[in-house]
């Protein structure tokens, strides 16, 4: 390459005419004020709704978590952080929290990676694409309570299909939902099944937005095998989608309730109790609103934590703008 | 630097369903030559480049780069570089990483590429240093050193275009394939950049295929221009050849933007029976007579084609006067812009043209040459 050929650098700094942008933004004083007023008027309904539907109930829950309020009891008193202390001391609730974290730690990564893998496979092959999308999306559209019942039938210890299969292959039957060592894992499998379809859909949509040019540039640059394409283009380009999927999946697996309520009622012996189910029990079976509120605050804290982590830590890294 | 190579494309066919995007396309490019592929949108220019690059398979035909056929070679093994119209920069990488990508992908193993594991792979440190040095040199060549640590989204269109060019030439390819690399720049920047692109190609001496739909661009910087329509070569020649001797009305129109006049030979023979266009008597010719606005004159009276003024368009020092001949044929003449006021709408006059700068072409299909038609290229 000859050393002395330079492009004039000023080409590289061509820019918009000065003033054009300022005019577009309406920065001058009078325009600014009326625009601000219009902005307030437009934002007000949404802000009011958020106040009524989100902040008010959350604040109420936060307040209740500091009282000993019991459903149907005449009075209540401030008890400070007693409910939180009780929450952390109660072995059942600790079991429930531990179950929840174990469940999230298994279900979230499994459903994300399985979904990514399946999405790549679906996109890679041609004709049956539509069918596969429909099949994997089914759990998302179906009513979960009905589906949970179907799982119950499948996993039934005596006449369930899975056990029939196991005994045909010469294995011992497993009490999937009533063996304390197995039940949580059974729920985790159902949880993955439940989440994976939605994640596949998001990944497939994300894959469709990757410009074909990038793969062609990669092929010319030397990345034309599957792994090269994946590391150079697919994975980085899926960054925003993956982040979104991760956040949604974390929150959804953390809020698991239906399968517990329909299939195990938290049993056997609290082996499958999870935070939302325990919260529900405290509030509506034991009427201990204070303790339930403390659990609700812990739950909200986790969800808010995940969301804040996403915004502060990751958004700038994966959106490339 | 690797020696530049010739390119021979012969008999390429590429069909999408029943439609042929390339239809028996043949072209020879000499080593170091700058050849433009010029044609309207959808005529198969990008498909041609993609077939040469190996991004698309041809249904028939052969491609030779240098003296060897590239049949079955993958894009990365063809020693070509491709600049995409969209630039196709990797958005998650800095410009430095974008420039380095082709070298990293070729010269480092999958493990060596990884930032953590890479340190453990023997020899990868030296390769990395060599790559970093080539990135610096290429950036200096293009004047983009200051941009190296930015992401593509933080660059202007012109800057992105340079980075894309840098990524193409860092590998010292034997053949540059440029797919409308200037199309996304604004007009002023486009004109400047095309000159610089031409200089750069001259200095590097790399054989170049440059795709554009802009005839001015093709005429300005090419050694030769290939005019293509609907997947076929219509004419190949130097810019001057094409301008002076277009082979048919389509080519003439395409190279006479914005306007070309096409008047039925019969109409001209009626008013000017003895006129000869480049020696051919109009009275005995069929088809249409074509001439450019700059070779037409308007007069108050004299020998020529009577017209009525429709409107005038100011274009700086010149103006375009749009007129209708007696049978409704529309023509355009270039006049000095000071004389616009002399030609108000509805005014009658006489149009004359230089018969040595005109051509006789067969009438376009479905058009006997008499029907009034607007001879303005879209
Ligand atoms: N992948 C494809 N599938 C179907 N048709 C295509 C494909 N690529 C190009 N074509 C068609 O081939 C023709 C030529 O396209 P292209 O080479 O992109 O034109 P140009 O670059 O000259 O604008 C067009 O009619 C286009 O619709
Ligand atoms: Mg194109």
Judged by helices, strands and strand pairing, the structural class of chain A is mainly alpha
Number of strands of chain A: 0
- Cα distance spanning the termini of chain A: 33 Å
Order of helices and strands of chain A: HHHHHHHHHHHHHH
Q: Roughly what fraction of the amino acids of chain B lie in strands?
A: 25-35%
CATH topology of the largest domain in chain A: MetI-like fold
Rg of Cα set of chain B: 26 Å
Number of self-contained structural domains of chain A: 2
Structural summary, described in words:
The complex is a heterodimer of chains A (321) and B (378). Chain A is mainly alpha-helical. Chain A has 2 domains: 9-64; 82-315, MetI-like fold (Orthogonal Bundle). Chain A is 71% helix and 0% strand. Chain A has helices spanning 20-25, 29-64, 82-89, 91-124, 129-141, 144-155, 161-168, 183-208, 212-221, 226-237, 239-254, 258-264, 275-284, 289-318. In chain A, helix 3 crosses helix 14 (289-318), helix 5 crosses helix 8 and helix 13 runs antiparallel to helix 14. The radius of gyration of chain A is 27 Å and the shape is flat. Chain A starts with 19 loop residues before the first helix and ends with a helix. Chain B is an alpha+beta fold. Chain B has helices spanning 45-53, 95-107, 110-113, 124-142, 157-169, 187-204, 215-221, 239-244, 249-254, 265-271, and strands at 7-16, 19-29, 34-38, 60-65, 68-69, 80-83, 175-179, 207-212, 224-229, 232-237, 261-264, 276-277, 280-281, 288-291, 296-299, 305-315, 318-325, 330-336, 348-353, 359-361. In chain B, the strands form 5 sheets. Chain B has a 6-stranded mixed β-sheet with strand order 6-7-8-3-9-10, sandwiched between helices. Chain B is elongated and about 90 Å long. The two termini of chain B are 42 Å apart. Classes of the chains: A mainly alpha (321), B alpha+beta (378). The complex binds adenosine-5'-diphosphate and magnesium ion. Residues 45-46, 179 of chain B line the site of magnesium ion. Residues 16, 21, 39, 41-47 of chain B line the site of adenosine-5'-diphosphate (ADP).
């Amino acid at each position: 390459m000859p050393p002395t050929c330079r492009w004039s650098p000023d080409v590289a700094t061509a820019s918009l005419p000065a003033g054009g942008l300022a005019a577009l933004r309406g920065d001058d004083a009078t325009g600014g004020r009326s625009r601000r007023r219009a902005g307030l008027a437009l934002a007000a309904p949404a802000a009011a709704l958020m106040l009524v539907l989100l902040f008010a109930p959350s604040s109420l829950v936060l307040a209740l978590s500091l009282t000993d309020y019991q459903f149907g009891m005449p009075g209540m008193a401030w008890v400070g952080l007693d409910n939180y202390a009780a929450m952390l001391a109660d072995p059942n609730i600790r079991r429930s929290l531990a179950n929840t974290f174990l469940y999230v730690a298994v279900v979230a990564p499994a459903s994300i990676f399985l979904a990514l893998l399946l999405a790549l496979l679906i996109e890679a092959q041609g004709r049956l694409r539509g069918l596969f999308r429909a099949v994997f999306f089914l759990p998302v559209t179906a009513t979960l309570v009905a589906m949970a019942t179907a799982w119950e039938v499948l996993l039934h210890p005596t006449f369930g299909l899975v056990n029939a299969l196991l005994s045909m292959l010469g294995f011992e039957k497993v009490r999937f939902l009533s063996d304390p060592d197995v039940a949580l894992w059974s729920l985790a499998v159902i949880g993955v099944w439940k989440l994976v379809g939605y994640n596949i859909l998001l990944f497939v949509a994300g894959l469709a937005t990757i410009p074909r040019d990038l793969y062609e540039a990669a092929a010319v640059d030397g990345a034309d095998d599957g792994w090269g394409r994946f590391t150079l283009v697919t994975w980085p380009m899926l960054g925003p989608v993956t982040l979104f999927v991760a956040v949604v999946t974390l929150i959804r697996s953390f809020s698991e309730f239906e399968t517990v309520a329909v299939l195990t009622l938290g049993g056997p012996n609290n082996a499958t109790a999870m935070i939302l189910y325990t919260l529900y029990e405290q509030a509506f079976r034991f009427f201990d609103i204070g303790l339930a509120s403390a659990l609700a605050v812990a739950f909200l804290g986790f969800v808010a934590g995940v969301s804040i982590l996403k915004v502060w830590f990751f958004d700038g890294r994966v959106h490339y703008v | 630097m690797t020696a530049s190579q010739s390119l021979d494309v012969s008999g390429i066919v590429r069909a999408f369903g029943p439609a042929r995007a390339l239809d028996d396309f043949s072209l020879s490019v000499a080593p170091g030559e700058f050849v433009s592929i010029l044609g309207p949108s959808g005529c198969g220019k990008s498909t041609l480049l993609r077939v040469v690059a190996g991004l698309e398979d041809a249904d028939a035909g052969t491609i030779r780069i240098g003296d060897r056929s590239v049949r079955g070679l993958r894009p990365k093994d063809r020693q070509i570089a491709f600049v995409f119209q969209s630039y196709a920069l990797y958005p998650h990488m800095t410009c430095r990483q974008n420039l380095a990508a082709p070298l990293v992908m070729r010269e480092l193993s999958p493990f060596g590429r990884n930032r953590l594991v890479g340190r453990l792979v023997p020899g990868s440190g030296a390769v990395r240093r060599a790559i970093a040095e080539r990135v610096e040199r290429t950036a200096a060549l293009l004047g983009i050193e200051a941009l190296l640590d930015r992401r593509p989204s933080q660059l202007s269109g012109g800057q992105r275009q340079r980075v894309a060019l840098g990524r193409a030439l860092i590998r010292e390819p034997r053949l540059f394939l440029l797919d409308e690399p200037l199309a996304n720049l604004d007009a002023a920047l486009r004109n400047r950049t095309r000159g610089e692109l031409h200089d750069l190609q001259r200095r590097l001496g790399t054989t170049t295929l440059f795709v554009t739909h802009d005839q001015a661009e093709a005429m300005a910087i090419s050694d030769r221009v290939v005019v293509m329509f609907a997947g076929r070569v219509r004419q190949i020649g130097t810019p001057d050849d094409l301008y002076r001797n277009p082979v048919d009305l389509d080519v003439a129109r395409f190279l006479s933007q914005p306007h070309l006049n096409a008047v039925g030979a019969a109409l001209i023979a009626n008013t000017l029976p003895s006129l000869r266009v480049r020696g051919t008597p109009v009275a005995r010719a069929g088809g249409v007579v074509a001439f450019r606005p700059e070779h037409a004159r308007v007069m108050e009276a004299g020998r020529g084609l009577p017209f009525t003024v429709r409107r005038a368009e100011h274009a700086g020092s010149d103006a375009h006067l749009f007129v209708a001949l007696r049978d409704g044929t529309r023509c355009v003449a270039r006049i000095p812009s000071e004389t616009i006021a002399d030609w108000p709408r509805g005014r009658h006059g006489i149009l004359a043209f230089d018969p040595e700068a005109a051509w006789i072409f067969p009438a376009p299909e479905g058009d006997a040459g008499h029907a009034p038609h607007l001879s303005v290229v879209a």
